[in-house]
Write a structure and sequence with these properties.
The chain contains 6 helices and 12 strands. The strands form 2 sheets. The chain has a 7-stranded antiparallel β-sheet. It has a 5-stranded parallel β-sheet with strand order 10-9-8-11-12, sandwiched between helices. InterPro entries: FAD-bd_FR_type, FNR_nucleotide-bd, Riboflavin_synthase-like_b-brl, SIP_FAD-bd, SIP_fam, SIP_rossman_dom.
Length: about 260
């Protein structure tokens, strides 16, 4: 039985930070309560609560408990190691413009953050004959986690958009998944390559599952392609907008609730 998400923010410490690629930062966080989480929840989302610059750990812990609510962003569990009480979180390096990227850039071992969740894993049961994946840098953690969770005999195609050729990552994907890295150097401009590549794919067959996530404009077009034109049942099609050009996360979430974003 899956553990229900804990909606109370819990404190965790930064254990390590590395730049995986020029535009992706991995922060490893640790806490005793992480040992109680289930293994195999890579790809699940959670709410990351962020301290203000120069805020002490004690002051942040008090704020988590008593308010006001700190800055919050949604992120993905890239790896979990319950036995050592660690999770890895991958951040796109946007500079200091956003609170999450700024925190990831400045954090050092011993710093703190808050965690609430996790939500559900995006694909719980792999049973398709063909898999189709697409992601931009924001959704690369969920795509990579999904690829690594697949049966080793899985077959399909993944279209992964990155900012520079050096942003390619090592992913332990099944040998039958063809991974295509597409360079999209300006995230402020709509991404079109995944849309074009998927639209040009031949018939996908009768047994298909998808994991597609990224900027909402791309997602809206791909949802129409996959569900409406290709006829993949909605239950088999994880397709989600993670952000929208020109909007911060709170604005994007409001637009999603209003049905005006992917």
């Amino acid at each position: 039985m899956a553990t229900p998400p804990n909606r109370t923010a819990r404190l965790m410490d930064v254990r390590q930070k590395v730049w995986l690629t020029p535009n992706m930062i991995r922060v490893t966080c640790a806490a005793d309560w992480i040992t109680t989480l289930e293994p195999g929840i890579e790809g699940a989302h959670f709410k990351l609560f962020l301290p203000a610059p120069d805020q002490s750990a004690d002051a942040f812990a008090d704020q988590l408990e008593n308010g006001p609510r700190p800055a919050v962003r949604t992120y993905t569990i890239r790896h979990i190691r319950p036995t050592s009480g660690e999770i890895d979180i991958d951040f796109v390096d946007h500079g200091d413009a956003g609170p999450a990227s700024a925190w990831a850039r400045r954090c050092v071992p011993g710093d703190v953050a808050g965690f609430a969740g996790p939500g559900p894993v995006k694909i719980k049961d792999f049973h398709a004959a063909t898999y189709v994946l697409a992601a931009d840098m924001s959704a690369l953690p969920v795509a990579a986690a999904t690829l690594e969770a697949m049966p080793r005999d899985a077959t399909g195609t993944a279209w992964l958009e990155i900012t520079t050729p050096e942003d390619r990552q090592d992913i332990d994907a099944p040998k039958g998944i063809d991974i295509h890295w597409l360079v999209h150097p300006d995230p402020a401009q709509p991404a079109t390559q995944s849309v074009e590549k998927i639209a040009a794919m031949p018939d996908l067959g009768d047994s298909v599952q998808t994991c597609i996530a990224g900027e909402s404009g791309m997602i809206r077009i791909l949802r129409d392609e996959i569900v409406n034109r290709r006829g993949v049942p909605k239950a088999e099609a994880y397709i989600s907008g993670y952000w929208k050009i020109g909007l911060i996360e709170d604005e994007h979430q409001q637009a999603k609730r209003a049905g005006t974003a992917g």
